[in-house]
From TrEMBL:
Protein's name in the database: Uroporphyrinogen decarboxylase (URO-D) domain-containing protein
InterPro entries, alphabetized: Methanogen_methyltrans, UROD/MetE-like_sf, Uroporphyrinogen_deCOase
Domain called Uroporphyrinogen decarboxylase (URO-D): residue spans: 173-351
One Pfam family recorded for the sequence: URO-D
Length: 357
């Protein structure tokens, strides 16, 4: 088959058409790969982002968060008083919150919603949209070819609020003040939909990420009933907004999603990522049950295989997964390609996908 461009390969895969090789999709945060493909160690700042993008050019057909570069490890405090710890590539979590109990968390959330309402009512988002599009085009130039960068990452606010409150306080407020949780999710979703309609352009990217980490190993983080009331209807609105612009939606959630897969399909998702095998997900079972209703991205275990396995084992698993998935599959890790993955294992995965690296 004649060699395809990356965008052609991505669009054909999302349409379940034949491709010249298996496309590769991942979130990329790997110093060893940067050194392998560029010969340099990525510094902090814009120069590090450039090297990351140069490596993406060599490795991936589709990616997201390409503008997130390496940082000096440390801590930072945001405008709300949350102190977060972070390493070179990843956040480590919240060290300090501006509240210590349910009552204080409730007061913080009420004030947060009031500020969001004022922002939504009064804010002219034209400058924000222009800045977003300018940066997106700049990152595309850094990558330097037709590698597909997911246009935007859109959530309902569930992940952000649960992270800010912590799971325990989030659970208490969900039980005691469900209308407060719903008000935050409504506002966040409406604000995101406004941004989608302002920046969506299928010529920039044929795909966007909609997300919500709603599961963990072997089970869901929230009951199916709660998700059907508070999460899925808002996710459906996000997917519909992108579809109005001819953009497909790759949905991301870690964990075991099988109990609510039919609900997810009803929200209009087009693809699923990362297919966390260590949590109980399986490419073979997804393809058996849902066929060409869902393109798949991921499925190559990061927690043990890419981090602790050997290249021959990686090659075998990748070959089996590609065969099980058939058309409509992007090979990639079950989380992100980060520094715990062995370089030789990452290269083995890329070679099994048909890349010359």
């Amino acid at each position: 088959m004649e060699k395809m461009s990356k965008r052609e390969r991505v669009e054909a895969t999302m349409a379940f058409q034949e491709t010249d090789r298996t496309p590769v999709y991942d979130l990329f945060l790997h110093d060893g790969c940067i050194k392998y493909f560029t010969g340099k160690y990525a510094p902090v700042g814009e120069a590090g982002i450039r090297l990351k993008c140069q490596t993406i050019h060599s490795m991936l057909d589709m990616t997201r968060s390409a503008d997130a570069g390496p940082r000096t490890p440390g801590r930072r405090e945001d405008e709300d008083g949350f102190v977060e710890l972070y390493e070179r590539w990843i956040e480590l979590g919240i060290e300090k919150r501006p509240f210590d109990c349910v009552m204080e968390a409730e007061q913080w959330l009420e004030q947060k919603i009031e500020r969001m309402e004022q922002t939504y009512k009064n804010e002219d988002i034209s400058a924000e949209c222009e800045a977003f599009l300018t940066r997106f085009r700049q990152i595309q130039r850094y990558i330097g070819d037709d590698t597909v960068v997911l246009l935007r990452q859109s959530g309902t606010g569930l992940d952000e609020l649960r992270y800010r409150l912590g799971l325990e306080l989030f659970s208490y407020l969900s039980a005691d003040r469900p209308e407060l949780i719903a008000a935050y999710l409504d506002l966040h979703t409406r604000m995101e939909i406004r941004m989608i309609h302002a920046v969506a352009d299928a010529s920039l990217s044929p795909c966007a990420l909609t997300y919500g980490d709603i599961a963990m190993k072997g089970t869901l983080l929230h009951s199916p009933e709660w998700l059907r009331k508070e999460f899925f209807p808002r996710l459906k609105l996000l997917n519909a907004a992108y579809h109005e612009h001819g953009i497909k939606c790759l949905f991301h959630s870690d964990g075991y999603l099988m109990p609510v897969m039919n609900d997810l399909l009803e929200t209009g998702i087009d693809g699923l990522n990362p297919i966390e095998t260590a949590a109980g997900m399986a490419v073979r079972e997804l393809r058996r049950q849902y066929g060409s209703r869902l393109f798949l991205a991921g499925g190559i275990d990061m927690s043990q295989l890419l981090s602790g396995g050997e290249p021959e084992e990686v090659k075998r698993i990748c070959k089996e997964t590609i065969a099980e998935a058939g058309a409509g599959y992007f090979i990639g890790s079950t989380t992100e390609l980060e520094n715990t993955a062995k370089l030789e294992n990452v290269l083995a995965m890329l070679r099994e996908a048909g890349m010359e690296v």
